[in-house]
Amino acid sequence: MLDAPGKALIEVSGLKMYFPITAGVFRKHVGDVKAVDNVSFTIYEGETLGLVGESGCGKSTCGRAILRLYEPTAGAVRIDSKDVLAADADTLREMRPKMQMVFQDPQASLNPRMTVAAIIGEPLDEHTSLSKKDKLARIYELMDQVGLNRDFANRYPHEFSGGQRQRIGIARALALNPKFIVCDEPIAALDVSIQAQVVNLLEELQDRLGLTYLFISHDLSMVRHIADRVAVMYLGQIIELAPRDPLYVEPLHPYTQALLSAVPEPDPEAEKTRRRIILKGDVPSPANPPKGCNFCTRCPKVMEICRQTEPTFHEVQPGRFVACHLYQETAD
Predict the structure, then answer these.
(1) C-alpha span between 290 and 271 (Å, rounded)
(2) Quick check: 97 and 177 in contact, CB under 8 A?
(3) Rg of the chain in Å (alpha carbons)
């Protein structure tokens, strides 16, 4: 757990990722799917920022846009004060070792025709000039770090369980000694019994190697365990950002309150008194978001201003940011 914010490692400002909608024979541009819409946040060195929200809210797209696996529509992303989005191909290639990703589906993210040694060693082939002997030594070192038996080096991905495959993916991400790793729902495809092992491994590696994580998940209990701060996303926008404990104890945004009310309580007595907030209606389409606040169509505390004016994302308490008209007067 990070005690106090240090140096800002990742600075995201005004990030937008729009996917064009085309129609007709000539593929005329008729609109956009606003997958990520004007997102801004900072991640400090050694910190884990949890990014949570419903499926389809733009979490994974945001993570991929930060690493420029997608070409963002607008905005700026700085890693160690260097602008990722403005970098040309050669500069971006030099920056790649600093930023890596652990993908959601360990089965789909590993090449079935490559051995474990070849998968983990691929980043070393691309970005280093190590000799064959040194490369093998580094591969074995990485396998040791993530708890994989060295005897597995010449096996193929289909021979492993989901948890072991995710360990292979983590070892590959660590190969070039990155500073920043985007963990895109790294436990979603795993059994509950294996999830804790993978999360504990990520925490242990963070302590040992000084890593910084963006941990994307819809598992609020797991985010509470691993994150230092939490950002809540709804329909492509971050609506609340706060340190972990204040957010879980006293969520400010009505959507965060509804989201956290769905988390089961392990204590049977507390579970009896837990009050669920049931939201009405469906999430609007990111291709046609509502006017004003994105959440106005489902918010139990909606006001007239919510349907007309988009709320600004601002600081309402030290370190706590929210985009909601209920707190607008506090900022003014």
Answers:
(1) 35
(2) yes
(3) 21
Residue ranges, the chain, pLDDT below 70: 1-5, 329-332
- For Cα atoms 140, 146, 151, give the angle at the middle one, nearest 5 degrees: 45
What ranges in 26-88 are assigned the alpha helix state H?
59-66
SS3 207: helix
Can you state the angle between helices 132-145 and 116-127, rounded to 10 degrees? Answer: 120
| Residue 325: Cβ-neighbour burial (10 angstroms; 0-12, 13-18, 19+) | buried
> Can you list the domains of the chain with their CATH numbers?
8-331 (3.40.50.300)
Provide the 10 A C-beta neighbour count for residue 301.
12
Query: Residue 213's closest CA among 191, 240, 185?
Result: 185
Q: What is the pLDDT of residues 274-288, one digit of tens each?
A: 788 888 888 899 999
3-class secondary structure, 231: strand
